[in-house]
Design a protein that fits this description.
single chain, mainly alpha, minor pseudopilin epsh fold, 3-stranded antiparallel beta sheet, globular, binds manganese (III) ion
């Protein structure tokens, strides 16, 4: 019943030159693996094994911080790898583009807003495109491993797209140049996955 590290749908070097293979290998094989193992250990300690992850996150403030820190670390990376692809980039189509135009004015305006949220998140964290409770798209960032499904999130919602802005996500390739990493991210977004999340 333990949570498992999901298989990547592409090889470590598949996202080059935008994301380098060494970063991918360490990020997935070391960081994400550690979150996975530590999350399972924290769930056992709290007697939460077998509970749906959404339910755990909706009550996360009631548990020891390890559940939030490692549970977010486990889940957020799942979403991140899934919303990346070597055949990515460009603009979304269909319902996603329509919703973006409706709620941000244009794709370019959304891009600026999301990039700003990612660039200005102070310290470690994530930027998100979410669907809020009024079925409106919103952009926000969270610190450390908090995500919008958690009861501690300042911006609750259903996550549709995310970028990891912890230094371990980009430092080997981009050093302190987080904005360059964020620019590169736009070339590897899997908009089909975003569309699936919007529908689901
Ligand atoms: Mn990470």
């Amino acid at each position: 019943m333990a949570f498992e590290l999901p298989k990547l749908a592409y090889s470590f070097d598949a996202l080059e030159p935008h994301l380098d293979a060494r970063t991918m290998e360490i990020h997935y094989g070391k960081h994400h693996l550690a979150y996975t193992n530590n999350f399972n250990a924290a769930l056992e300690k709290e007697g939460l094994v077998g509970k749906p992850i959404e339910e755990i996150f909706a009550n996360v403030s009631k548990y020891q911080a390890a559940v939030m820190n490692h549970g977010g670390g486990y889940y957020n990376h799942n979403l991140y790898w899934e919303n990346l692809t070597p055949n990515g980039g460009g603009q979304p189509e269909g319902d996603v583009l329509q919703a973006i135009n409706r709620d941000f004015g244009s794709f370019d305006q959304f891009k600026v807003k999301f990039s700003q949220a990612a660039a200005t998140q102070f310290g470690s964290g994530w930027a998100w495109l979410c669907l809020d409770k009024n079925d409106k798209l919103c952009v926000c960032s969270t610190s450390n491993q908090v995500n919008p499904l958690m009861d501690v999130a300042a911006c609750p919602g259903k996550p549709l797209l995310t970028i990891d802005v912890w230094e371990h996500a980009y430092y080997l390739q981009y050093q302190n140049r987080r904005p360059e990493f964020i620019d590169a991210f736009w070339n590897v977004i899997n908009w089909e996955v975003v569309a699936k999340r919007l529908k689901g």
